[in-house]
Structure formats: C-alpha cells, structure tokens
Design brief:
This is 2-oxoacid:ferredoxin oxidoreductase, beta subunit. With about 250 residues, this protein is of the alpha/beta class. Helices cover about 40% and strands about 15% of the residues. The strands form 2 sheets. The chain has a 7-stranded mixed beta sheet, with helices on both faces. Bound molecules: thiamine diphosphate and iron/sulfur cluster.
Length: about 250
C-alpha cells in the first residue's frame, strides 16, 4: 500500500512537490499557511503570487496561481503594478528579511507609505540564507553568521530591524500589520488570512512578518532550531497584531 501523503493546500501545485527547501526550513511552513488561507478564502483563481530573490524564489512554481519572480524587494512594486492594472486580483509579495529590510527596503517603505492595496509576507530567518548565511538586518545580537563570526555586535552594526513596528509607524489607518511565527501555525495562518481579507476589503496595505527557521545556515539540530525560533527570536521580535483595522471598525 502506498504511504499516506500529508494533506496539501488545494492551491499548491502538486507537480512541484516535494519542494526544494532544505529539511526543517521555515519557508515551507509559511507557504502552507498562505496556501490554506487562499483555499479558505476561495481566491485561487484571481490570486497573483510574487516571490523575491533569496530562498523565497524556490516558491516560484509552488502554487497553481499566476506567479512572478523578481529581485531584492522589487516584488513589492511589481505586484503593486499588477494590482493597479488589475484591481480585481489579490496580489501577494513574498520575500525574505534581506530582500525586504535591506537591499529592497525602499520598496517596502514606499508601498506601505502609499497604502498600496497589496499584501506583503516576509519570512524573517535572521540571515541572508540563499547566499550562505551572511548577517542580515534581523540578525540577533551575539548571533554568529558567516560575516559576524564572533557574533553580531550591535555597537558597529546596530540592533536587529523591527520590520512590523516600522511598517506600523509609517502606515495610515487602513493598514493591517502583524508578526507571526512558524512556532504557532494556526495563529500565523489567521494573520495571513486577515492580511488578505484587508486587501479584499480594499482597506490598503497589509504586512505579515513570519519568524522562520534556517537550520542549514544556523547549523542547528532540530531542538536548537526550535529553541532559537520560540525563545531567542520571539523574545526580541514580539509576536502579535500591531494594526488591525477590521477590529477597530467593529469597536466603533
Ligand atoms: C542587488 C543584489 N545584491 C545581492 C544579491 C545576492 N543575493 C541573492 S539572494 C541574497 C540573500 C537573500 O536573503 P533573504 O532576503 O533574507 O532571503 P532568504 O534567502 O534568507 O530566504 C543575496 C544577498 C542579489 N541577488 N541582488
Ligand atoms: S538555506 Fe535556509 S532558508 Fe534556504 S532553503 Fe535551506 S533552510 Fe531554507
């Protein structure tokens, strides 16, 4: 008898599975939450998925939806253009912390500032993973990477970037902003779903950072990987909703 297969979101592309991420990678979990949210909202037919450079690009053929791949943070303006030209589409930009907060941060900042009606989902794994694990804006103080072999020193390199806090500060009332974690998939999926619902309601920009794992570059075993995500990362990067216009509307 064939082995029972794990249940996949209906909008995942079966032909491209098993996927190309390393074992234990956080990207697959974030994309599973996104897939389930797309299924539950019934928006597969009009969804456009954009992925960035970095390991996120390994999702270029992940979904059975129209997809586009771009370079460092440019996914945000590319899907912005698609959304403006086709307002009935649901446009999602998927990227890593290097793409969204460093090399392409201007695109995130300006799309958020303009309250573009798109959804950005950013996997924060604290490193530039695809290029070999260099220090990223999100690298934790003391964390060893290829370019911080003695641990990140906040003196010369600053403290880790707080992306959702920044997006929250520069957006207006229609924006949805949250930080979830692969350590709580039910919650992460609900944040992603609410971000997509915000776009469907036409309120404006929605942004979800997901705390994710890169055991390959962290050089961690399973136990160390989960400890780093659940304890170390979560103690600095606070998980929760920062802006939820739907809740504010309900309260008024
Ligand atoms: C302008 C530019 N600079 C550098 C690179 C090389 N590069 C490709 S992927 C990458 C790191 C991506 O890291 P991140 O966005 O955090 O994604 P991850 O791989 O961690 O998922 C870099 C530096 C590039 N493609 N373009
Ligand atoms: S290098 Fe890291 S982020 Fe990239 S696929 Fe492997 S585990 Fe995932």
């Amino acid at each position: 008898m064939p082995e029972p297969q794990p249940v996949m979101p209906r909008c995942w592309r079966v032909e491209s599975k098993p996927h190309k991420f390393c074992p234990g990678c956080g990207h697959g979990l974030v994309l599973k939450c996104l897939g389930e949210a797309i299924d539950e909202l019934g928006i597969q037919q009009n969804t456009v998925f954009g992925c960035d450079i970095g390991c996120s690009l390994l999702s270029w053929d992940f979904f059975n939806v129209d997809s586009v791949q771009t370079h460092h943070g440019r996914t945000t303006p590319v899907v912005t253009g698609i959304k403006r030209a086709n307002p009935d589409t649901v446009c999602i930009a998927y990227m890593g912390d290097g793409g969204g907060y460093a090399i392409g941060s201007q695109h995130l900042v300006n799309a958020a500032g303009r309250n573009e009606n798109i959804t950005v989902i950013l996997a924060n794994n604290t490193v530039y993973a695809m290029t070999g694990g260099q220090m990223a804006p999100t690298t934790m103080p003391g964390q060893k990477t290829e370019t911080s072999p003695y641990g990140r020193d906040p003196g010369p390199t600053g403290y880790p970037m707080l992306g959702p806090e920044m997006v929250s500060a520069i957006t207006r009332e229609g924006a949805y902003v949250a930080r979830g974690s692969i350590a709580n998939l039910r919650q992460l999926k609900s944040y992603i779903k609410k971000a997509l619902e915000n776009q469907l309601a036409g309120r404006g920009f929605s942004f979800v950072e997901a705390l994710a794992a890169c055991p390959t570059n962290w050089r961690t075993n399973a136990e160390e990987t989960w400890r780093f995500v659940e304890k170390d990362m979560a103690s600095y990067f606070k998980v929760g909703e920062l802006k939820n216009p739907a809740a504010t509307e309900k309260a008024v």
